[in-house]
Prior knowledge:
The protein has 462 residues and is mainly alpha-helical. It folds into two domains: 17-203, Growth Hormone, Chain: A (Up-down Bundle), CATH 1.20.1250; 256-448, MFS general substrate transporter like domains (Growth Hormone, Chain: A, Up-down Bundle), CATH 1.20.1250. The chain contains 16 helices and no strands. It has helices spanning 17-51, 54-81, 85-102, 109-127, 129-139, 144-151, 153-197, 261-290, 295-322, 325-345, 349-363, 366-378, 383-398, 401-412, 416-433, 450-453. Helix 3 runs antiparallel to helix 4. The chain is globular and about 60 Å long. The model is unreliable at 1-9, 216-251 and 445-462 (pLDDT under 50).
Amino acid sequence: MSWPSALPTPPTGPIFHGWKIIFVSFLALFVSVGFGFYSFSAFFVALTSEFGGGRVGVGIGVAIFGVTNGLVAPFLGHALDQGHAKRIMTAGAWLLALGLLLTPTVQNLVQFYLVLGTFLALGAALIGGVTASTLVANWFVRQRAMALGIATMGISLSGVVMAPVATRLIDLIGWRGTFVLYGALTLVFVLPAVRRWVVDRPEDIGLHPDGAATSLAGDWTSAPAAGEGPAGVEPVAPLPAAGGAPPRRPRLDWMQPLANRNFWVIVLVVSMCFCANSAILTHIIAHATDLGFPPVEAAFCLSTIAAMGVLGKVVFGWISDRLSSRGALWLAVGLMGSGAAGLLRAESYPAVLGAVAVFGLGMGGIMPLWGTLIGACFGRRSFGRVMGLMSPLLLPIQVLGVPFAGYVYDRFNSYDLAFTTFVGLYLFSMLILLILRIPAQEPSGSPPSPARLATAAAPRTE
Length: 462
């Protein structure tokens, strides 16, 4: 069924609007991750001293933050597929700023948990990974992996700069003043960027994905034929045009992705990688200190991981767009496994730096390749909902890594068993990836990557 076209005249100018979408997504990820996850280690000592409860008490707040993000994700993905990205990100920027401004007023751990688990967690979720990835995936098809890689550089760059910046700010203006400054920066930079530049999809302003002259990703003015795409994707109503059109309706039943093997392959691989990655990121400074390196050199190991992650996002974005998204992820996981294995044998500082550099290069590819695989297997129409549904399913495995590594160290006074286990997880992930089958053509009419164009007519899939 088709609807009359009433798209507005596309804006003219030398810069494709999709690059502005990438900039907003980069900024949103930098703030939501940098002001939260990467800065939080700098606040640990100050918050523990202020409220008591030990590091476990403050750590509970971090866990609440993560659980809230995971629980919100499915509903967030559903709303994003309905075309509400601008409203969602606007609300997220307000909530995050309000949470940052409220945090300095808390007087005990209970109040801290309330602010962290509501305003901060919800705000970060609404402008964070699921939203930013969905927005970028809507604007890019052929260059999706590279676009996601550039946008998610915000995560890696925040890891490079935010921990030392937060430490310095706390020394200068205290932890309460630092939170106030973060809130003000969110209102001054993030909110205006969202309000000015966020558009759900290029078709909403008369453009096409990747800035193409003609549509490369299917006709958004008519619903796809019944049965199109793999299991988990159903026909959809067209997007509304500017002159008035039918409202968006749900495109994907909540349970449908569960019938798709690719869904579970991606969930298992990403959850195991996140499990090992979070543990290595959390414990690498302690491990380097145990090897006898001074605190500054130990901390530089974490900065090296984050810096190499920036490079990894570009490298694996390029590989995925030109060769194979599955092959790119397989290589990224292999590099992380090699880095973790290197940590088992490294004793000198150059050897440790080499191991974490290899690990960081591979780790940088995970976020953009996760989004690229979702787009390739499920299409733009259902991207947000599929990523949102995956997010809470990652948690049961993802959250085990950090406490497991801590338990191993407390029990054996060494991280060797933990690192060996993580190498095993990476190897198992590489094995599971072999059964991933990417459709020759992206669901809903989007074209395959250039690497698959030559085999698109063949019945076999990647």
